[in-house]
Each structure stands twice: as structure tokens, then as C-alpha cells.
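Thought: the user wants the 3D structure for the chain below. I'll pass the sequence to the structure tool as-is, report back what it returns, then summarize two notable features.
Action: structure_tool
Action Input:
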Amino acid sequence: DVYKRQSITSLGGETVTQGLPGLSKNVLNGTLFYSLDNFETRLNVRYRSDFVSEQVAINEQVVNFDAETVVDFQTSYQFTDSFGMLLQVNNLTDEPTQSYFGNENITGTTQYFGRQVYLGFTYSH
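Observation:
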């Protein structure tokens, strides 16, 4: 079991049991892929359960990051032997990254990094 828990005693004497910083207990990845002749498409989903951060908070607060599910999409088409197109959208659903202190009611940050769209063409002769 790679996921381990640790007990930390603060300078104030309080002991907290938590996961190791940066490690989620559950990480899942799934991909659906379809290809036909010159056409390809792919949908990828990544899930990561909540985890403890290495960030330092005020007054010995523990910083946690909430679970997140990120969806990516990619499609391509080869028009000819020498000309093709690729469309890629990362973070399709604009999933935020959220942190909190100790419990989910004490919000730290909510960050939206947005969708990233890439459109590319290839040409060779």
C-alpha cells in the first residue's frame, strides 16, 4: 500500500493523523478511444481524491486540496497523406482546484485555470 498515513504533533502539542503530503488515496484514469480510417477521437477522464498539501498555512492549519475530476478531449483527421488537423481541449469542464483548511467549511482557495484549446495542422511533402 503506497498510500500511507502519518501522525504529526505540532509545537502546541496537538496531534493530527493525515495522509502524506501530495499523495491521494485514490487516483483513477480512463480513456475512450475511437478510430476509423482517417478519423480518430479520444476522451480521457482523470480523478484524484483529496490530499494534504505541503503548503504552510496560518497558525499551524493543515491545507487540504479537494478531490477533482478532469476531462480532456482530442480529435484528429488526416485529410490527405500530407495534410492533417488536430483539435485538443484540456480541462473540458473547467474543473476548479479547491483548497480548504482542516475541514471543507473553511475555504482556502478556489482556482479556475480554464479550458485550454489547441488547434493544429500538419503538412508534409
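Final Answer: Structure generated. Residues 25 and 71 are 20 Å apart (CA to CA). The radius of gyration is 21 Å.
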